[in-house]
Design a protein that fits this description.
6-stranded mixed sheet, alpha+beta, 7-stranded mixed sheet, 16 helices, single chain
Length: about 500
């Protein structure tokens, strides 16, 4: 067999494993969902052991089809901010992973704001004080899990985002590390010094011995334990999911922008060596340059993107499977005035309102499930429109098109509606798995599978371009109704 790269995408709702060839084409895809836990309203958890078990079994399946001897390297990308603590001696989590969507640290954030800490966190990390990020989740675990703080003080616990957890398991505890992109989302990493920040750690009462080493995204992270797969395989690429998608889209230069449509939606712009301070509610973060080394980016995050369709499917049971949403949306001419604001876990950028809650407005007796499904798809596009307006304002950018990726981009209705709202062409690639692709590209570069980044430039190929066609008066009215609905969520 020919050499290949194995890419792991540990997402919010499931694990994807891809086999990539020299042309970065997907030879085979393996996927499995894992359990979502909602112990209280606004709380979201994952079982760290289940995430590892699903990942391990998918890799095993891949190695039944492809020889592990031919694997040139493994790349990992992951849901960022999701926080796990585990015992260094036993390798067992001390609690479920607290997911990025979880709002349980709302009060911790409020207290930090009231104590006047907002500016110092923003200045050092580029982030806002929000329960979205890892720092307050670590604090909550230390303060609320029996014996956790004592164990941490003795150096017996390890913190990691999901990349670090999988790395630990793949190396049988030999490596406790992360990369710059994931570290930049913890709220305790200084993006200027590119080191863990002692002052922020003290404010959150987090001992530094919990934290992983920080490495560039493309390079040696360790090797798999031989007992796992019968071979020792280098792990040579790690990046947070949105930074990996940016890399997978070939956005190596300053100003290059992509939007990923997954469980949430994430707009990310490469700003190179220029650390931009947003005046529009966006976050400054770390992304990868073409060599996998850290540079700056500007990001807008939507908490509930494709997850709103999962909600209609699983909780309201308005459709049996997610792809049905496109046909249902096209079965009606419009949403019949229905607007959904999916603030199930508050509102992210550009609003950053932890207290906002979801709302459905404009319901009349004539509204049916097709109207509601259409409104759910439309609300994804409305939220992304808010992000694009913000980033273009901050950077004074103009563009003719927007590069997109992620599972929800397969929905043609959504992509056309997005083009209409933005008045931009929407460029969908043939490979919408840009997140896993980016991790694979970083791993391939780090392992020498690809000799230099120039080999990666031509990998991205366009599938379809969606051209704006909506009359301006209709667009204006739709956006006005959306903004009115958002204001109502902020008044509850």
């Amino acid at each position: 067999m020919k050499p290949y790269i194995l890419a792991i995408d540990a997402g919010t709702t499931g694990i994807t494993v891809l086999i990539l060839d020299r042309e970065a084409a997907i030879c085979k895809k393996y996927y499995k969902e894992f359990t979502q836990y909602y112990p209280q309203p606004g709380w979201v958890e994952h079982d760290g052991e289940e995430i590892w078990d699903v990942t391990y079994k998918l890799i095993q399946s891949a190695f039944q089809d492809y020889s592990p001897k031919d694997c040139a390297g493994i790349g990992i990308t992951n849901q960022r901010e999701t926080t796990l603590l585990w015992n260094r001696k036993t390798g067992q989590p001390i609690f479920n992973a607290i997911v990025w969507q979880c709002r349980r640290t709302h009060e911790i954030c409020k207290n930090l704001q009231q104590a006047g800490n907002e500016d110092i966190f923003r200045k050092k990390t580029g982030l806002v004080l929000d329960s979205y990020f890892s720092g307050t989740k670590i604090k909550w675990l230390l303060d609320n899990v029996e014996g956790a703080r004592e164990k941490a003080d003795k150096g017996n616990l390890a913190f990691g985002t999901i990349d670090s957890w999988l790395l630990w398991k793949l190396t049988n505890g030999a490596m406790h590390a992360t990369d710059y992109t994931n570290a930049s989302r913890t709220m305790v990493f200084n993006i200027d010094t590119k080191k863990w920040d002692e002052e922020l750690l003290q404010i959150l009462t987090i001992p530094s011995n919990l934290l992983p080493d920080v490495k560039i995204s493309s390079g040696e992270f360790g090797k798999t334990d031989k007992q796992l797969f019968g071979e020792v395989i280098p792990i040579t690429g790690i990046a947070g999911d949105q930074q990996a998608a940016l890399y997978g889209q070939g956005c190596f230069e300053s100003g290059d922008t992509k939007c990923t449509y997954g469980t949430g939606c994430f707009l990310l712009t490469n700003t190179g060596n220029n650390r931009v301070i947003s005046s529009s509610g966006l976050l400054t973060t770390i992304v990868c340059n073409k060599d996998g080394k850290p540079v700056y980016g500007l990001e807008g995050s939507v908490f509930i993107g494709g997850a709103v369709i999962q909600w209609l499917r699983d909780e309201l049971q308005l459709l049996s499977q997610t792809p049905d949403s496109e046909e249902m949306a096209l079965a009606v001419e419009d949403s019949n005035g229905v607007v959904i604001v999916p603030a199930f876990t508050g509102l992210g950028a550009p609003y950053w309102d932890m207290d906002a809650r979801g709302i459905i407005t404009g319901l009349t007796r004539g509204a049916n499930r097709n109207h509601i499904v259409r409104a759910a798809l439309e609300c994804i596009a409305y939220q992304v429109n808010d992000l694009v307006e913000a980033v273009f304002s901050d950077l004074d950018l103009t563009a003719n098109s927007l590069q997109v990726d992620g599972g929800a981009t397969a929905n043609n209705f959504l992509m056309q509606f997005q083009a209409d709202l933005l008045r931009l062409k929407i460029d969908r690639p043939k490979n919408i798995e840009s997140t896993a692709l980016g991790a694979g590209m970083l791993a391939g570069l780090g392992s020498g599978f690809w000799k230099n980044p120039s080999e990666l430039i031509t990998i991205r190929k366009s599938d379809k371009m969606f051209i704006p066609s909506m009359p301006e008066d209709i667009r204006t009215n739709l956006l006005a109704n959306w903004r009115m609905a958002v204001r109502k969520t902020q008044c509850t």
